[in-house]
Amino acid sequence: MSNPLKDINSEYTKDVMSFLFGRTEIYLDENTLSVVKDDNVKLLTSSVADELDFIVILGGDGTILDAFRSLKYTKAPIFGINLGKLGFLTSVEKYEWNYYLNLALEGLYNIEKRSLLEMTHSKGTSIALNEVVIFKDNDQDGAINLNVYVNNILLADYDADGIIISTPTGSTAYSLSAGGPIISPQAEVLLLNPIRPHTLSNRSIVLAPKENVNIMIKRGKAVVRCDGKKCLNITDNLLEFSLFEKKASFISFDNHNFYNKVYTRIR
Hints:
Layout: H1 11-20, E1 27-28, H2 30-35, E2 42-43, H3 46-49, E3 55-59, H4 61-70, E4 78-82, E5 92-93, H5 97-105, E6 110-121, E7 124-128, E8 131-136, E9 144-150, E10 153-160, E11 162-166, H6 174-177, E12 190-195, E13 205-207, E14 213-219, E15 221-226, E16 229-235, E17 238-252, H7 258-265
Parallel strand pairs: 1-2, 3-4, 4-5
Antiparallel strand pairs: 6-7, 6-17, 8-11, 8-15, 9-10, 9-14, 11-12, 12-13, 14-17, 15-16
């Protein structure tokens, strides 16, 4: 899977395919298959994704989030090649993919298990790898009022522009730019981070994995985004959050891990 806006003329996609031909069975998603036409590859869908050894995704963090969503949060490990900027979700950089992809084909890699976030609402359930963001609607004048409950106990009453409910993986995304802490993706926690609250103190809160979070919009209109994509409009609605039963799997290598990325990207 690849991002055509990052992979101009499918240059990297074609190189990766040439590298893989004759060494393994290849599946391509519908968009990539329409660009790189070949009778020797099969169609990649969410129904077959779980059966694959791993899935190569070319692009940045946004590409991986979109691909992971389209594959229904597959349990197959993700091998990301960074064609973007930060690339916290990717496994390797674009100038070294062939060396590490060869290691991956030989089974010489590590698996990082990462928590997913589940949001339950009146219209169903939504899943996120990074975060769910509740933010005031564009038509909303002033702040919205949010009541935050943990295990049915009132934790906070915020007048704010919104709130971020994040996984450890999402701690290096929007939450980081909102002043939140960096959390190891191996941790099993939930992070609550208010966005521009009308208070003299602004503190992020880290919760244990089995704790449940309920958020009530008491005043104002809000939009909910899951991993950057709009997933819900709400007014006076109750949202419930907890860690999802499944986890995401990402391929990493001994000298390419989360802490290497923190050191090279945030300094």
